[in-house]
Every structure is written in structure tokens, then in C-alpha cells.
Amino acid sequence: MRRLLPPRALLLLLLLPLLTACNSDQVEHLSNTKELAVEAANWEVKRIMPADLLRATAWAGDSLTRTAERELRQVMAQKLAEGGVAAALPFCHPEQLPRTDSLARVLKATLSRASNRPRNPSNQATLSAYALNPADTTRLVARPSQEVFTYQRPLVLSDQLCLRCHGVVGQDIAAADYALIKQKYPRDQATGYQLGQPMGVWRARLERNGIAEFWTMKTRKVMKKRKPLF
Prior knowledge:
alpha+beta; four-stranded antiparallel β-sheet; 7 helices; about 45% helix; about 15% strand; signal; Tll0287-like domain-containing protein
């Protein structure tokens, strides 16, 4: 007569293959758990506070105006090298240049310039001494309505090339070049500047949804690249 195993011993016998299959050496661990955690955090619904939107307006305005300044310097250097002031003059509209215009569309922003000594009369404005402060930290950010934000900072003559059109006539600007400028802009006042001097202000009008999207992208968590082991 066969002797039957106790129920507990029989259960252990049945579970033995499963226990051996769970050997720690055979468990496959996920190698990108940090990346997955970061991505999960980025997809969390987060509440954007009014102060966050004002901070994002300053970031967006800085990004837009610096893009405009970089692109203008590149275009002006190229055009002045190709054909002097005559070739460069039609392109001195940074808010209309391709990269700047593309970024403005992403931010849902309208970029403009204002000065109390403009070249183009449409840019004429009475600016306060504070608005013309050349300090790089000067920013005026506001929210005039629920859906609209505004940004302003000084526009400073920061490149030697700009003196070719905005410097002192007869010293930085050749007489023939100034004649071209006056032909295109008869009411021009934008000369006599020196390097480092404020010429006016950048102004941007931005929509809330563009600012919110920019804040979201700027605050996304980004994983640092791992250094190779070998």
C-alpha cells in the first residue's frame, strides 16, 4: 500500500519548479527606469499659476528678441559684405526675418520695436528713462488681459556693424550711404548712436496659450546623458 504525501509537502513539491524559475539571475530588469520615470512626470497634469505665466513671458520675450538680434547680425554682416549699405538697408527688419518670424508663430507673439528717435516714423514712441535703461536685466512684463501678455526690454546698439547705418554721419556713415538712407526714410532720426547706447525698446505681445506651451516645454524634465562605461 502506497503512503500518501501530506498536503503541505505535496504543495511544496508542485511549487518547486516555479521557485527555481524565479532565480534572481534569470530575472530581466528594465534598463531605462529613470527615463520612464522622467517621461511619466512630464505627462503629469500640472497647474500653471499666474506667476509661472509671467515668468514664462520673460523667458519667451528674451528668447524671441535674442533670436531677432542674432539673425539680424548674421543677415547684416552678409548683406554689407555683398553690397554695402544699399544691399543691407532693405533687410533691417528683424521681426520679419525667417527664423525670428518662425519663433514668433510658435510663441503666438507679435514682435515690434519702438524708439523716440526712429528711422521709420511708425516706430515713434515716447519712452521713459527706465525703458531706455541698457541694463540687460531690465524687463517689463505685464498681463493687460486674461489672454494677453506683454514684454519689453531695451534695444541696445551692441554690434560695430550697426554703426554703418546708425552711427555718426561723416564718421561711421559715409555721405553716399546716408543719402540712400534719407531717400528711403526722409524723416530718419536714427543716427548719431555709439556702441553700447540704447536705441529704443523691443516690445512683444504674446497670447496666453503660446506662453503656457512655452512654460510647459521649458520646465520639462530632461535626462542627462549617461557616460559610457568603456
